[in-house]
């Protein structure tokens, strides 16, 4: 299998963490994230959206959308599990993950920020937009974990929620967001004790 991703990209990092947690080896091709240009149309044959990550399958064809890729990994390699067995808890975990994947990261994606610049916003306004979107998203995530025990997002085991949270906190720091979210930060600290998170960080030389 071959993973195409951007560097630095919180979204690509999600998939790399999940692959590492599952112990699945892939060839990884990291491309420079286009900051100001249009979507990389060189990849539309693999993903008509022109977005990464993209996972090329050995039998042909490719998978896109980080959540769909991670859920596919969960189905193909169920151990160690990233989702709990109990349906309501699975739904809560997916809700947390979607709060990041659908309602936080898309608001500060490079393509969206490029559109805001093209519409005439100053760089200060663009950065302020991104910080606001991330703060609001993370504040909601902090609330979603209010009744959930640690040390990870949803208890004693690392899960899908941590796979999405940790890269989002990384993106938050890149934009200079004030991180006053103790529950999220403690889940991040627990996750960062695991090599699957540490060894795939976007700054890690062999992650480049
Ligand atoms: N919802 C998508 C988001 C993918 C995404 O935003 N990818 C970014 C890299 S982090 C991208 O390809 N950006 C290029 C662009 O917007 O032109 C997923 O979870 O895979």
From TrEMBL:
Cross-referenced SUPFAM superfamilies: GST C-terminal domain-like, Thioredoxin-like
Residue span, GST N-terminal domain: 1-81
Ranges where the GST C-terminal domain occurs: 86-208
GO cellular component: cytoplasm
Domain of life: Bacteria
Isomerase is among the record's keywords: yes
Example GO molecular function: glutathione transferase activity
Key words, A-Z: Isomerase
InterPro entries xrefs: Glutathione-S-Trfase_C-like (IPR010987), Glutathione-S-Trfase_C_sf (IPR036282), Glutathione_S-Trfase (IPR040079), Glutathione_S-Trfase_N (IPR004045), GST_Zeta (IPR005955), GST_Zeta_C (IPR034330), Thioredoxin-like_sf (IPR036249)
One GO BP annotation of this record: glutathione metabolic process
UniProt keyword annotation of Isomerase present: yes
PROSITE patterns: GST_CTER, GST_NTER
Similarity field: Belongs to the GST superfamily. Zeta family.
PANTHER family hit by this protein: MALEYLACETOACETATE ISOMERASE (PTHR42673:SF4)
Protein name: Maleylacetoacetate isomerase
Originating organism: Teichococcus aestuarii
């Amino acid at each position: 299998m071959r993973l195409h991703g951007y560097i630095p990209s919180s979204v690509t990092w999600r998939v790399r963490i999940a692959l590492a947690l599952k112990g699945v080896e892939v060839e990884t091709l990291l491309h420079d994230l286009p900051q100001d240009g249009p979507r990389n149309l060189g990849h539309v044959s693999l993903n008509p959206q022109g977005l990464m990550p993209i996972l090329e399958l050995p039998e042909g064809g490719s998978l896109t959308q980080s959540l769909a890729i991670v859920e596919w990994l969960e189905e193909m390699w169920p151990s160690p599990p990233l989702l709990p067995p109990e349906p309501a808890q699975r739904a809560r975990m997916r809700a947390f993950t979607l709060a990041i994947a659908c309602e936080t990261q898309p608001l500060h994606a490079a393509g969206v920020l490029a559109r805001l610049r093209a519409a005439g916003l100053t760089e200060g306004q663009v950065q302020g937009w991104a910080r606001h979107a991330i703060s609001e998203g993370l504040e909601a995530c902090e609330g979603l974990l209010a009744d959930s025990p640690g040390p990870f997002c949803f208890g004693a085991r690392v899960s899908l929620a941590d796979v999405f949270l940790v890269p989002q906190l990384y993106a938050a720091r890149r934009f200079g967001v004030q991180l006053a979210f103790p529950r999220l930060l403690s889940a991040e600290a627990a996750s960062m004790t695991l090599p699957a998170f540490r060894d795939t960080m976007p700054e890690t030389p062999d992650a480049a």
